[in-house]
Amino acid sequence: xxxKALNAKTDKDTVRWITAAFSDNxxxxxxxxxxxxxxxxxxGDAEKxxxxxxxxxxxxxxFEYYLRHLNKGRPFILASHSQxxxxxxxxxxxxxxxxxxxxxxxxxxxxxTFTDADLARMGLRLGRRPDETGVLLxxxxxxxxxxxxxxxxxxxCVNPLxxxxxxxxxxxxxxxxxxxLREDKPPLVVPHFTAARINDSGALEIPTPRPExxxxxxxxxxxxxxxxxxxxxxxxxxxxxVRLRCEAYRREDRP
Length: 255
Hints:
The protein has seven helices and nine strands. The protein is α/β, with parallel strands linked by helices.
């Protein structure tokens, strides 16, 4: 928590980058937490539990603080990725009464598996329309034959091109623009970057990117696993969808 270089990198490459998809329409509250490393995420559930407890405690405390002192009765969005999505999932599974669902615009939680059983225990439903509110939205991006360690049995998926759950392939023309973060270079902006469909494993499958783009990608989780780019490849779609759901929430009649 006191590592200035690490905090600066986290702010630049994670917090500011991902929250830019939300900040045109939302105030941003992004707590720091004690993140576990990738070796822990590879462990079995029993062994992993003693380590993942720290980030779950941190994020739960931060969310409770936000509700008590900062929310002031406003609607809100939950947003996360990868381990962050797992941490929010565990927070909501353990504290189902913590979330005032009448105030939830949407929960964007890509990069982790959510099953029907998880959704039922959290009292949330998977989004099926682009203007639906109070729903959870999740996906894990792979290419042809790609395997992601974050796609577990029973994984559900929402396609961020259509914001539906059907298995139809939607064309690249529906991808407003990808904004791909690159190390020490400006982001690579690619209009109409990719088609996408939900495959039989519950992953979001895209065609292999063109070679001139593929060679600029960080493939640290293996060939055709685009986990790092769950937000990047659909960045402007997410940004536009946040606006749409916020407007839909404002139009809805509430007690």
